[in-house]
Amino acid sequence: QLQASGGGLVQAGGSLRLSCVASGGMFSRYTMGWFHQAPGKERKFVAGISRSGGTVYVDSVKGRFTISRDNDKKKVYLQMNNLKPEDTADYFCAADHTILSAPIGRTEGNYEYWGQGTQVTVSS
């Protein structure tokens, strides 16, 4: 089970830090991802972090967002800086049980477990 938190209302240029805590299972055996879904649009990949700590980002957030994980706390984070109005969306964390060398999935179908969304609103 995944529980996301940390969303809120922020002005453009501001920052938010999203957190996602997992319960049950061996957290370290999962690739973790963040997706977002804007109103009326499909859910899209934002960032992912592998079991070994490798990261990937969608181009629109590179240099602004940072994904990280703490296996001891069973948490994954998304630090979002220099937020833009187009970042407004519900943000979801997801987990993919993988082998150590597996690449980071970038589609919804790669992930078996999902948290509820946390809403991020960026005002201009």
Briefly say what this structure is:
The protein has 124 residues and is mainly β. It has no helices and eleven strands.
Chain-wise SSE layout:
Elements: E1 2-5, E2 8-11, E3 16-22, E4 30-37, E5 44-49, E6 55-57, E7 65-70, E8 75-80, E9 89-97, E10 113-114, E11 118-123
Parallel strand pairs: 2-11
Antiparallel strand pairs: 1-3, 3-8, 4-5, 4-9, 5-6, 7-8, 9-10, 9-11
Measured between the Cα atoms of the first and last residue, the distance is: 34 Å
Mean pLDDT, to the nearest integer, reads: 96
The helix/strand class is: mainly beta
How many helices does DSSP assign? 0
CA-based gyration radius = 13 Å
Number of strands: 11
Largest sheet geometry: 7 strands, mixed
- Shape annotation: globular
Kindly report the oligomeric state of this protein. Answer: single chain
**Beta-sheet strand percentage?**
over 45%
Helix percent reads under 10%
* SSE succession: EEEEEEEEEEE
Low-confidence stretches: none
Detailed description of the structure:
With 124 residues, the protein is mainly β. It is 0% helix and 49% strand. Strands 2, 4, 5, 6, 9, 10 and 11 form a 7-stranded mixed sheet that branches. A 4-stranded antiparallel sheet has the order 1-3-8-7, with no helix packed on it. Strand 5 and strand 6 (55-57) form a beta hairpin. It is globular, with a radius of gyration of 13 Å. It starts with a strand and ends with a strand.
